[in-house]
Write a structure and sequence with these properties.
The protein is built from 64 helices and 4 strands. The longest helix is centred in the first third of the chain and has 37 residues. About 10% of the residues have low confidence.
Amino acid sequence: QVLNVVAQRMELSSASLDGMVVREGSTPAPADPLRGKGKVQVVEEWVESLVFKLVDDVCREVEKDNPAPQVNELGAPIGRYGWCIVCRKAALHYCLATSDPVCSKACKIVNMERLKVVDSQDDTSTAAPESAPEQPVEQPETDTLNVFTKDALVAFSSLCKYSMLPPPAGGSATDPEYVRGKKLSLELIQSMLKNCGPVFRSSEKFLSAMKSMLCISLVKNSVSPVPRISQLSLAIFLALMANFKDHLKAEIGVFIEQVFLRILQSGNSTYHHKFRVLQVFHEFCTDAQTALDLFLNFDCDVNEKNIFERTIDCLAKIAQGKYTSAEHCSLQPQQEHELRMLALSAIVTLMGSIVDWARRMSDGEIQREDTTEETTKADMDMSTMSVASVSTFSTLNTVDVNSIEASRKRKMDLAACVAQFNLKPKKGMEMLIHHGFVQDDPRAIAALLRNPDVEGFSKTQLGDFLGDFAEKNRAVLQEVANSHEFVGMDLHAAMTAFLADFRLPGEAQKIDRMMEAFAGRYYAQCPEGFADADAVYVLSFAMIMLQTDLQKPAVTNKMTKESFRAMNRDGNYPGEFLDRLYDKIAAQPFSLGEDDEARIKEELKAGVGSVRKTELFLQEFDTVVRNTECLLDLKSRKGGEYISAHSVDYVKPIFEVICWPMLATLSVLLESNDNKECVELCLDGFKHCIRVSGRFGLDNEREAFVSSLAKFTFLHTLKEMSPKNINCIKALLTIGLSEGNCLAGSWKHVLQCVSQLERLQIISANAKEADHFGGGSPVQRTSSGFLGSYVSGLNGAPESLAKRRVGTGASVVLSVGAEELMTEQSNSEQIASEIDASSIDLLFHRSSRLNSAAIEHFVRELCQVSKEELEPELEPRVFSLSRLLDVADTNMDRVRLVWSKIWRVLSEHFTMAAMHPNTGVSLHALDALRQLAMRFLDKVEISGFHFQREFMRPFEVAMGSRESTAERKELILNIISHLIQARGHHIMSGWGSVLSIICMGAGYPDPLSSLAYTILEGIVVKHNALCIENLADTVKALVAFGKNNLSLERSLGAISCMVSIAKSMADEVKSRGCSGHHRSDSVVSNHTSDRGAGASSSSQWMQLLQGFAQLVLDKRREIRTRALDGLFDTLRDHGGVSFDQDTWHLVFAGVLMPLFDDIHFQLSADNQLDRQWIASVGAPTCLAALTALIRLCDAHWTAVSPLLCDVLKLIDTCTHHGSEQVARIGVEGLKQLLAMLGPKGTPEMWLTVAQAARRMLAESMPQELQCKVDTTSAALPFQSDRVVGQCVVQLLLIDAVRALLRERAAEMPGEAVQLLLEAMQESQQFATDFNVDTSTRIHLKRLGFMADMRHLPGLLKQEREATTVALETMFALVQAKREDVDLEQLTARLIADCTTIMAGFARKEQQVVSYAERRAKGEVKDTVESVELERDVAGMRPIVVNVVLKGLHALPAQVFRDYAGEVFPALVRLVASPAPVVRSGVQDILTKHIGPLVVPDDEMDTV
């Protein structure tokens, strides 16, 4: 107590009390008892009163047997409770609040007020809160220290010195009096450290005393054979760690490494030493701050050793029992168990404290980030701290954390370089230089190799490196020698120090170089007694030889002292000197520390008694104490900044160090130990490690711990379970409940165990399993297959009776026999009694509490487990599949983005399950989807989203799969029907999936097709507006039924539904009053924001019309006719109201043109369809379609007239089609169009028609007839059918043009007439050119062209028809005197053509007459040329008579008079024509036009 008063007085006397406020008590005093007194005076009075009280207590105890009355220094007699603590009068009262004797109430108040002042001083100095950094109090040094501080320092130093005193001469370390004194000194030191304040903790004098005296004292006393002494030393060390670790970084590291770890690793230390050290480590592990500080200050410092890592490894090895019994033979089994449990408890406690520290740190950092949010420790649930929050915290001290990480990495790089050096010294040194650990300088390299803080250098490789002949190596060797200080050392001691750095190599030359370097350094510092350095070298080498000779067992003839003297005779050394060297080498050979330890271990393995072990222990730790003193002196000079952990980011690197020893320890103990305490500790360790690894994103570590724990459940094996396996199952379930957000992919192990757990629980209940199916039976709650095997197995069948999946990961399916079945039955009963099934339900129910990332992992892994359960080689189980239904239902209310990710995983798995080969599984999956769909469709979908469509996709995939049976597809259709009836008003984007499924149903036979059509028909009737919104899918489904050949009635009904939808779309437009001004959209909108009121866009009309067009080509006449009527009726009935100009353009380009293209393709010669079908179906369809198109144009000519070019283009496509039938139909369509256009045509339209007609004529011209014919070839150079078809089309087009010109020439502009006239002339010229080429025609005839004709192939009719149309048109224009044509040029061209025709005809006619006369005379016979000439003349005669001559006759007199000179010669030649009709025509012309020119008018009547 006196010592405490001294320390307290020092603290109080050194503190500044100015400005402190005395707190008022609850009961005010009559007057201020301390008025006029300063704070310092008040404190001094209190200290004085306290000292008096202590003295009084001692005196009363001493004089209690003295009958004389006691009085104090004032002569006051003793009272009932002694003397008053304030006024020193007799104390008749006792203060309950302070436990102090007082004489009156006034003194009591004074005493309490003094205590308030002292307490306020303590609050501001000695009891500072943890969050505020301790402010050191500036202390005067040396002579400036006040008397109270000096007293405390003297007391502390004296106690430290006393605790270091060795036993008295001739005495023992266990002498009672010596032990009592040392114990008292240590207890007093401990008391001072426990009650020290900021003055003590910050004073350099006290810190210096600690480093120089107390630490040395603790090192010596910690290995004392007296338990209480060593225990007190360790307790004092803990006090130093708690209060002075900021100043004792080096001392702490040395103490742990040289004392604690050596005690634990030594086979000579006693059980009590080991136990107490483990208690210290356990105390360390209870405070994560201490552990983290050790890690940061040593393991993350390149210049320090891995103290923390070595500590953990040591504890792990002790917990696993990894030390040989020979080394620790003094340990009893119970003692060994206690040590192992204490070590295990330490590392498990460390993990628990790290978890708690991380929680508290995260709590504090959250409060620092958001000062408005108050979170108490009780409210903080560690399960809410995720990796995301950890990453947020790390930003508080990013620089420091990054610096620590960089330092740790650099230290690992250094270890890698050292490891490389131990393999190949040269390469390792290059790596050290490259990474910047040392400069490429011999002195720097020598300093690195001798640095005690750099661990791992192999002494053997180091000796080889230093002894190498290379210049650089020799320079390093010399620097190593120069770094030693040999002053004051004899030769043996100096060489021992020199050889302690490396192992001497075996090569003599290397030893020679080393001894040379040593001799030079030793002689430079200790030249006395040696002639020169060579003398030192010779003697040193001789000492090495002596060492080798004495220590090698193979040498039988050992060197004697005389021999050794003889070896060094030339050195003139005294014999006594050499004898002493010989004795020292024999007693203390040159050896490395590790070699000595190895020898001691070998001695222990050989077996030694307890006395010898004690001797070895004292010997070992005497060396330890000496080494520790040297290290403390060296470290204290270096100093170093102490780093304190302040961020949860440090947990990740420290766990990376802890985790693997932890995993090995926990796994080994859990596997080999059934002790309840051990199992509980191991499971706690697993929980802590999984918690940390999960929350800090250490995936590999988390996976390792979870998988290891899952392995110990034995749920994946056929082994008999014990209570520890049950506890492992419980631990795994607990982890799933508490750490769900952090498990990520490790959920797989939890869920696999849950699956097996449920299976065993069902077995134990001896009930039919709800999730076993066999042989494709329907879904039933049965497990008869598995339990039946159990019964058979128990009856003794030796064969395998069931199959089980054994193992995790790459598991295999094994046969299960009777013995294994009995084991599983026993396991299931044990599980049923120990584990509540509700814990499984809770695991899935709480999935709604998982965060977004965690629930995605959970669902994915549950799907994987379900997939394993459904594998067909076993009896499939649907436990996990059923749980997926529960999980999906529980988490359906999450935000849509998260739910979309979840459903993407679920959808894939449900789809797979729906197509499972086992029908029961498939139907179960489909029913689960139905339940989820009913639940999901309760929500209203926001416009523009497609969540419903994604949700319904599994139904689509299952419906379209070839693996799905008819039974499954029928169930899908019934589900769809049920959903429409129950949730139809909520379906939006889901209609796309519904209609797609119905469309698939159309392709299957009845009853699927019939059921699908019934559903579709109901949708069209009851949800017509929705059909319009989802028109693309609706039309697709209706078209599918229209093409279905199973039922004509359904096909016709589908077309009727399309017509009904078209009417609804038109009615919708009418209801809004949108007449002809409908918006044209390029994108189809599947559903609009206003259901049932959205505009029927042009794109929707296109979809519907294209649907009709697809059915037009159906092979069934009824379908074809109904579809064609539906298409054009829709266009005719609704186009005027619903279509604008752009829509009409789209209709022609996107519907009608493709429709005719399809028809043309089916009618083409390249198509391999039935020729009979083409003739009986294709051609009529094409004609009907073209006729309907013309009628459509007639009905909506105002709207369609701008599309005249498109109509003509379509007709043009028909006319030049390869099929003659199509071409004829095209010409017929042109005629119908021209007839329709008659009264409605405008000049622009007629010009367009003329251009199109000319283009058609040009494109249908048989140009291939003009190709050069190879007379040597035996094949036609073209396709005969195509050319013939072109010829036919040419004639038909000429006929159409003739009709047009005859009926509408007067209405047509002159330009249009000119175009048609030119077209006729081009056609006539082409035909004429071919007809005159008789040789080509003959050759074509020989090659088979028009072989069925009697005459040569020719274009005579085309020539005549074109000529006729051209001449008639020109005569009509001239007679009409059209102003929009150049009459003069036209007339000149007409007269020239007529003259040419008449002259040619007259010439050919004369040739025919001449040839006939010669043939009659027998001079010639009929030839091809003569026959063709007669045909030509016969064909030209009607043209000459009916066209040319009549036309000339009808010409106005003035026109004829202007061109009479040109016409008259031709007419004269026709006078000799043998044909009366020709002569008659000429006569009429001559009479009308030539006569008036020759005979006067008054004479014409006579003529």
